[in-house]
Amino acid sequence: xxxxxxxxxxxxxxVAQHRAALARPAVGSWALRVATAAAxxxxxxxxxxxxxxxxAVGTTTITQGMLFRAExxxxxxxxxxxxxxxxxxxxxxxxxxxASALVAVLLYRYVDLGTLGPxxxxxxxxxxxxxKPLSAYAEAAAVVFATLGLLTHRTPGWNRRFQWAAxxxxxx
Amino acid sequence: xxxxxxxxxxxxxTSGWLRRPLVALVALATVGVLAAGCxxxxxxxxxxxxxxxxxxGSSAPTTAPSAVATVSATSTGLGMILVDGSGRTLYxxxxxxxxxxxxxxxxxxxxxxxxxxxxxxxxxxxxxxxxGTIKRGDNTTQVTYNQHPLYYFQGDSGAGQQNGQGVDxxxxxxxxxxxxxxxxxxx
Lengths: 172, 187
Known about the structure:
Helices cover about 70% and strands about 0% of the residues of chain A. Chain A has helices spanning about 5-10, 10-25, 25-50, 65-85, 90-110, 130-150, 155-170. The longest helix of chain A has 27 residues, at about 25-50. Helices cover about 10% and strands about 20% of the residues of chain B. Chain B has helices at about 20-40, 105-110; strands spanning about 70-75, 80-85, 90-95, 120, 130-135, 140-145, 150, 170, 170-175, 185. The interface between A and B is large, with 49 and 52 residues.
């Protein structure tokens, strides 16, 4: 296999380092997945608990309470995906859910956008709402965790290449 | 050109035990329970809402649910406004209708209602004829003035503060109340 010979040139120490590096993310990835899911879980709980208080805020199409329940649902789904199926698409889903929620809460805290098409006027110029600051922190944390998860994600192919390199080295 | 990835995949590099859906579900459920525990102090429908924990706020209103409330008027930078017996500012919610509160749940945790066990006492500067009460969904009694249900603001830590003035939350604005029974809309 000439196209893989370059990996076979690596010294035993290098291969060992690569193998050690591969072993480490197992714990790191586990922690990152749980942390991301936890942050999304907090976001979901706060949105779900507060949703009923916003049912009267809405347009004829949708209420803010409905949007909160939708946010809670997708946050739970994204958290589960990251836990059960930690693929790049799952990390991207978690990142999008957390980032969109964070942008929304910050935007509507400081900018009065009024109604936007079917979206209700969700302007709320205070943090004095139960769980609102906590939810914002959780969303920010989820953005960081999901980004790290995406950047440090290892595809299975990498593992095979390094395993092959180690075997090739033993064969001399 | 992509360097040969075999079509047959090896198992993912992540730790094996967490790949089991059951374990993952248990982990998420644990996280959910922990988070819900933090927020369990949420008041329910029409809550009396002093709040705490996730619904935190160290500034619970001083009126005990079993006490008869007092409403007075006091001079502030916003003019004469209604306060309770201990000088805490009282607010009205624009979304409320006459003798009807539109604030419950998380809203009532952020804006605790002014409760009274009976007809509230009129302090100095207020018209006793404008004072009244309404029964809320959770069977607590809320003080009204000129048919406006009255609330505290969790962001006020004590007497003399009006941090809730002009705040836009839960779909409408909140204002302090003048002795004539109207909203003080000035900043």
